[in-house]
Design brief:
With about 160 residues, the chain is of the alpha+beta class. Helices cover about 25% and strands about 25% of the residues. Strand 5 and strand 6 form a beta hairpin.
């Protein structure tokens, strides 16, 4: 099933003479977003979980996301004997996002031991900061916006900044 996400009107990217791009709002229209291939995201999340390091819980988690430039990125959990230091699959995926040049997340799928799972609260905040309220998260086979999954998220820019 392919769904088109609804995103806010942010403007149109226009090339400038220097070879860079700039965002303008004079002719505001919805930005083009890639179609969501949920099957490909599920496959990438399942593949990612096979790389998990989970010797303590044996709970292997994989997360995959569609980035606004069309890339699919993924991450797996990496446990630590102290548990609290465990790296969630979603955190590893965000690291892959930044290592690959950044971007905004459009849709996310997570699997744990071959079953669909939803991210913990910490990871939901992390996903919010890299995709915003309209990021779609597959829950029980249905896409749900982050605004439903984390209704009172911290703002993307911390209120604790100096």
């Amino acid at each position: 099933m392919v769904m088109e996400p609804t995103l806010p009107n942010l403007g149109v990217v226009q090339p400038v003479d220097s070879g860079t791009t700039t965002m303008t709002t004079d002719s505001v229209s919805p930005m083009a977003t890639p179609s969501i291939d949920w099957d490909a995201l599920r496959e990438a999340a399942r593949d990612a979980q096979s790389h998990a390091y989970a010797p303590y819980s044996n709970f292997r988690v994989g997360a995959a996301a569609l980035v606004d430039d069309g890339r699919i990125i993924a991450g797996c959990n990496v446990e630590n004997a102290s548990y609290g230091m465990t790296l969630c699959a979603e955190c590893a995926m965000i690291g892959a996002l930044h290592m690959g040049g950044g971007g905004r997340l459009i849709a996310v799928v997570c699997f744990g031991n071959d079953n669909a799972v939803t991210p913990c609260g910490r990871c939901r905040q992390l996903l919010w900061e890299h995709g915003g309220p309209n990021l779609l998260l597959e829950v029980n086979g249905e896409p749900r916006p982050m605004s439903e999954m984390l209704p009172v998220a911290f703002p993307e820019h911390s209120v604790f900044e100096n």
